[in-house]
Automatic annotation (TrEMBL):
Organism: Vitis vinifera
A molecular function (GO) term: ammonium channel activity
Protein name: Ammonium transporter
GO cellular component, one term: plasma membrane
Keywords of the record: Ammonia transport, Membrane, Transmembrane, Transmembrane helix, Transport
Domain Ammonium transporter AmtB-like: 23-439
Listed transmembrane segments: 23-45, 52-74, 115-134, 141-160, 180-198, 210-227, 281-312, 332-352, 392-417
Matches recorded under SUPFAM superfamilies: Ammonium transporter
Length: 472
């Protein structure tokens, strides 16, 4: 039985909490969570060969669960807690009721809401890294990689850029919603880990067709629409800036998709569904560091650039650079996340509008957070060049951090378990790794008895002898 509103204890709805902001923050977090579960689970499971569908989907599924346990255990406080160093917070648990019900460091809602919101961002970062490793990483190695990378890489980037005490945050680097912390990090870390893990089997690398393009589009659709919470939740309030961020996000994504599509038609003669999906992703990634601090026309320009520059690096540059050709990046996360994330960070430094930055950062200082374009317009070119400088400094820091930490983590794991699956497992896929397969179709080893299937019209099909260990 519900109590009347006037009898609800004060601590259940304290004066400092804004119910609308709290409700939106929980909703936004859930939208971001749906990008991973089931969005990327479906996308990964359907964009790979049939024999890797279970393994690819389960890498994402596992990472989501493991990150949450680590996040409340120590990760959140290392990312947003008391400062231990200019780039990291003190590890501590985030499960005590007294702590969870206190006001968050930003916004008018409790710590519990902030922890949940920040968790889904941490989780999707690890899942994006998995995209570079599909089709060959030892699952036991992945089980170790997730908590280690979260602890020693993600928390450093998050604290440095997003925590008010972080050194890049104090420097004034703009990363509205994770262009650096999530996308540049995952792109660089995924590429680095792919180098250490090694390539897929030669047959898989030569030909790796999706097993279900329609399901791939369903996963991509969840990813796209979930970005409403991804960028719309970062003002930590139901504000005008949140609304602008959401609209800019979708405008940039649509423009980027169409740009990529037109380039595919012009140069390859066919409108590629997978190509359009890549264009959608690069648009979403590129606008992320800028979503609520640029005007709508700038979002369109960013969409054109995010649909063309990563297209060029993937289709042209990749085939002519020795290092890029040596690394087997299954989902091309280097191009869709590292290149697009860096591009977004630089364009943020150019297009950041001072008034929008003032609304987002709640600061009256016009000498900070001013894009170079507005520096030229208002005669404050020094401030504009400074903003470009700190944006580039953030890029250099994130790249350096992730190359070093990801390499050290992979080398450490290699001392315990192999990073790559054995050759016989690479040939078989899911059945060898998990003892399970995604699709139990007639002709794949299932035995159909006519006396059991006559009601389903199976009499005309001959019985199929099952493989050893197969189920009848």
């Amino acid at each position: 039985m519900k109590l009347p509103l006037n009898l609800i204890p004060d601590e259940a709805s304290p004066e400092w909490m804004n119910k609308g902001d709290n409700a939106w923050q929980l909703t936004a977090a859930t939208l971001v969570g749906l990008q991973s579960m089931p969005g990327l689970v479906i996308l990964y499971g359907s964009i790979v060969k049939k024999k890797w569908a279970v393994n690819s989907a389960f890498m994402a599924f596992y990472a989501f669960a493991m990150v949450l346990v680590c996040w409340v255990g120590w990760g959140y406080r290392m990312s947003f807690g008391e400062k231990l160093a200019p780039f990291i917070g003190k590890p501590n648990v985030a499960l005590d009721q007294g702590y969870l019900l206190k006001p968050a460091f930003l916004g008018y809602f409790p710590n519990a809401t902030m922890i949940y919101f920040q968790f889904v961002f941490a989780a999707i970062t690890l899942i994006l890294i998995a995209g570079a490793l599909l089709g060959r990483m030892n699952f036991r190695a992945w089980m170790l990689f997730v908590p280690l990378w979260l602890t020693f890489s993600y928390t450093v980037g998050a604290f440095s850029l997003w925590c008010p005490d972080g050194w890049l945050a104090k420097l004034g680097t703009i990363d509205y919603s994770g262009g650096y912390v999530i996308h540049l990090s995952s792109g660089v870390a995924g590429f680095t880990a792919a180098y250490w893990v090694g390539p897929r089997a030669s047959k898989d690398r030569e030909r790796f067709p999706p097993n279900n393009i329609l399901l791939m589009l369903a996963g991509a659709g969840l990813l796209w629409m979930g970005w409403t919470g991804f960028n719309g939740g970062d003002p930590y309030a139901v504000s005008t800036d949140a609304s602008l961020a959401v609209l800019n996000t979708h405008v940039c994504a649509a423009t980027s998709l169409l740009t990529w599509l037109m380039l595919d038609i012009i140069f390859f003669g066919k409108p590629s569904v997978i190509g359009a999906t890549q264009g959608m992703i690069t648009g979403l990634v590129c606008i992320t560091p800028a979503a609520g601090v640029v005007q709508g026309w700038a979002a369109i320009i960013m969409g054109v650039l995010s649909g063309s520059i990563p297209w060029y690096t993937m289709m042209v540059v990749h085939k002519n650079i020795w290092l890029l050709k040596q690394v087997d990046d299954t989902m091309a996360v280097f191009h869709t996340h590292a290149v697009a994330g860096s591009l977004g960070g630089i364009l943020t430094g150019f297009f950041a509008e001072p008034n929008l930055c003032r609304i987002f950062y709640l600061v009256p200082d016009y000498e900070h957070y001013i894009g170079l374009a507005y520096g030229f317009q208002t005669g404050r070119t020094t401030a504009g060049f400074r903003q470009m400088g700190v944006q580039i400094a953030g890029i250099v820091f994130v790249i350096t951090l992730n190359v070093i930490m990801t390499s050290l983590i992979c080398l450490f794991i290699r001392l315990i378990v192999p990073l790559r699956l054995a050759d016989d497992e690479l040939q078989t896929g899911d059945d060898a790794v998990h003892g399970e397969e995604a699709y139990a179709l007639w002709g794949d080893g299932e035995k159909f008895e006519s006396k059991h299937n006559s009601a389903f019209g199976m009499e005309e099909f001959p019985s199929v002898v099952p493989r050893t260990g197969g189920q009848v």
